[in-house]
Design a protein that fits this description.
The protein has helices at residues 11-23, 54-63, 100-103, 114-123, 134-155, 158-170, 172-187, 199-202, 210-223, 225-251, 266-271, 303-306, 315-330, 341-344, 407-413, 415-427, 445-454, 495-502, 508-519, 526-535, 537-550, 560-564, 589-598, 605-615, 618-623, 625-636, and strands at 28-32, 69-71, 255-260, 276-284, 294-301, 335-337, 347-350, 362-363, 435-437, 458-461, 483-486, 555-559. It is an alpha/beta fold and 638 residues long. An 8-stranded parallel beta sheet has the order 9-6-3-2-1-12-11-10. A 4-stranded antiparallel beta sheet has the order 5-4-7-8. Helix 1 packs across helix 26 (625-636) and helix 20 crosses helix 21 (537-550).
């Protein structure tokens, strides 16, 4: 029988789990919970989760001393028409993460009335569901913002107003442009700048007519003074609350990890359009999952504006350095870099075309024979693999297209990593171990060499192992210590949903074979374990989670759906609409977790530790008998 709810995550429970994690060589255990997914208290649920809420504080307290970190998703401002945090702004934070409840207190001079807050909470269509009401939250944030902006101007304290003025000055390099975009969106009746009627507005910071630009900026700034100031106030509030949340987590010994998305928002594309490569987009080449490749439509930073000829940072490089430095300073727990491949060896394609070689696509820095991209290519003709691979020669869309590089070339491929990302971490008082390099997908030779050269911590996704490949890097026995291992990301099905599709099918056999060999080599009941994994989706999912902890990886990540036993998908790539990016952790998460443990759907930490320790072999198991006894007592206590 499982522990009763009151003893779950007790001091004794946490100390025992932490001891087991140390014995297994785990330095970090991170819970992945993106901002929208945080639980709320009943008196603060406005339809959208936030890491700044009281509900979030209760979660932080619940997981502290077991989890070393909580990894957030990107926190940029999103659009009404697109809730994906991975297309949000790179500088501005999402005002939906403002804790409105706090604005009704004396701490914020009650700039929001309790009556307004109560109405928003009462009318929340999803107040009894574990889903965000995105459109509702956006609409009511605007209503609340109109009120708290008006009240802030009227009766906020001198100290708060002084802090606001300092914030505006310190962040003017990005805040002025982002706020101006808000005004221009109203002026042009669209928040998508390519549809604006005023041609000058489209290129306000990308025109040779500086006088006309300055005149237009002054005109709009005067006409929409309140719109601009309200935008800046929202940014001030969410920034101040986020800093306080960070300090709170520090007091608990808990780190917050940020997420730097690869995309730039419409707002960013407008503000910095002169820094992007005209006519080209970032995507992924055709592969097993996508016959035509993935046409993301994301902007590509112009290589000639990233670095000057002498190797110093160019205009685009300076901007990105400011961005990464800001992120590391605000998130000393570290930063996950989305699609690290895109910083080293990006796949680019022509706007309006598919990301296929026959339509002009190629790797920006690895296309020495491309008629348009060759001028950017670090790889040269002599670096091309001329040896037939599986009966054919390597081609430009093959990850083995380039198979040798000089040290100087590897350094050039790694310039963004070394001079922008790592340099920013160092400027913030951190080191390269504060970087989680999301290196999933196609790993070309240049990417592998840069990862090795700088010792970056990559990611290993056990759900994506190719079970028939003995040496596959995502298999438990092959996972390296300098890694972050997990069963799945925000783009994957929960592990139990995956398991439900393979149990009782021949497809399950190679996965089970690997798990038996890697986790059960000294078990005496292999046939029984095999049968249980083959027929029981919960047990197969459990063993995939064991795989993470049994591996040699020093860092483990768990997406909240897999930990709490929520068998729902957070995001389905290639689709859009409300089902995506809206899944939330239940407000009564402690009770929810307890119930899911009873049904064997949530992650049973003591049991996972026991299995992971058994996987290390009989001698290891015997040498830690006292710890195993404590873990057994947690699993079986009545």
């Amino acid at each position: 029988m499982l522990l009763e709810k009151s003893k779950l995550f007790s001091k004794e429970y946490k100390e025992t789990i932490q001891e087991a994690l140390n014995v297994l060589g785990k330095k970090n255990l991170a819970l992945i919970l993106q901002g929208v997914s945080f639980p709320s208290k009943s008196d603060e649920n406005t339809g959208f989760g936030t890491y700044n809420s009281q509900g979030a504080k209760e979660l932080f307290n619940y997981v502290k001393d077991i989890f070393t970190a909580v990894q957030l998703g990107p926190c940029g401002k999103t659009k009404l028409s697109d809730s994906s945090p991975y297309t949000g702004t790179v500088f501005s934070k999402n005002p939906l993460f403002i804790n409105l409840k706090e604005l009704t207190t004396s701490k914020w001079d009650r700039i929001l009335s309790q009556k307004t807050l109560d109405k928003i909470i009462e009318m929340n269509p999803n107040k009894n569901a574990n889903r965000a009401a995105y459109a509702y939250a956006m609409e009511n944030l605007e209503l609340a913002a109109n009120e708290f902006y008006k009240n802030f101007k009227k009766h906020a304290s001198k100290n708060l107003k002084k802090e606001f003025e300092s914030f505006k000055k310190e962040n003017a390099f990005w805040l002025d442009k982002d706020a101006l975009y808000e005004a221009l969106s109203i002026e042009n009746h669209s928040d998508y700048w390519p549809q604006w009627n005023n041609e000058l507005d489209k290129k306000l910071f990308n025109t040779t007519d500086k006088k006309a630009s300055e005149k237009r900026i002054k005109q709009i700034s005067k006409k929409y003074e309140d719109v601009i100031e309200k935008y800046k106030l929202e940014q001030f509030i969410v920034q101040k609350q986020s800093e306080e949340t960070l300090e709170y987590c520090k007091s608990l010994g808990l780190k917050l990890i940020a997420d730097r998305q690869v995309a730039f928002s419409d707002r960013d594309n407008w503000a910095y359009q002169s820094l992007f490569l005209d006519g080209w987009c970032l995507g992924c080449p055709p592969d097993y999952f996508s016959e035509d490749g993935q046409a993301w439509g994301f902007s590509v930073v112009d290589p000639e504006k990233l670095f000057n000829q002498d190797g110093t940072l160019g205009e685009a490089g300076i901007l990105l350095k400011k961005l990464y430095t800001k992120m590391f300073k605000e998130n000393p727990g570290g930063v996950r870099i989305d699609h690290t491949v895109g910083l080293i060896d990006p796949w680019v394609y022509k706007k309006g075309c598919l990301p296929k070689v026959e339509e002009g696509a190629g790797r920006l820095y690895s296309s020495p024979n491309h008629p348009e991209l060759s001028k950017y290519s670090i790889a040269k003709e002599e670096n091309i693999n001329k040896t037939p691979i599986e009966g054919k020669f390597a081609t430009p869309d093959d990850e083995k297209w380039i198979d040798n590089l000089s040290d100087e070339q590897v350094t050039l491929y790694g310039r963004m990593i070394e001079k922008i990302v790592i340099a920013s971490a160092l400027d913030a008082g951190l080191d390269k171990n504060s970087i989680i390099a999301e290196d999933l997908g196609t790993l070309t030779y240049p990417v592998v060499q840069v990862m090795k050269k700088y010792g970056l911590q990559g990611m290993k996704l056990v759900q994506f192992v190719v079970p028939t490949e003995y040496d596959h890097p995502y298999r438990c026995k092959n996972i390296t210590p300098n890694s972050w291992v997990m069963v799945g990301t925000h783009d994957n099905e929960p592990i139990r949903m995956w398991a439900s599709k393979v149990v009782n099918t021949e497809e399950a056999n190679p996965y089970i074979k690997n798990l038996i060999e890697d986790l059960c080599s000294e078990f005496g009941n292999k046939d029984e374990v095999w049968h249980k994994m083959y027929t029981d989706e919960k047990y197969l999912a459990f063993m995939k989670l064991v795989e993470c902890f049994a591996s040699k990886a020093e860092n483990v990540q768990i997406f909240f759906t897999d930990f709490f036993g929520i068998n729902e998908v957070y995001n389905v790539p290639g689709t859009s609409g409300d089902p995506n990016w809206t899944l939330r952790l239940n407000d009564n998460f402690e009770e929810f977790y307890s119930q899911k443990l009873k049904s064997e759907e949530a992650l049973n930490l003591p049991l996972v530790m026991i299995y992971a320790m058994k996987a290390r072999g009989w001698e290891f198991y015997k040498n830690h008998q006292e710890l195993l006894d404590k873990l057994e007592s947690l699993v079986n206590e009545k």
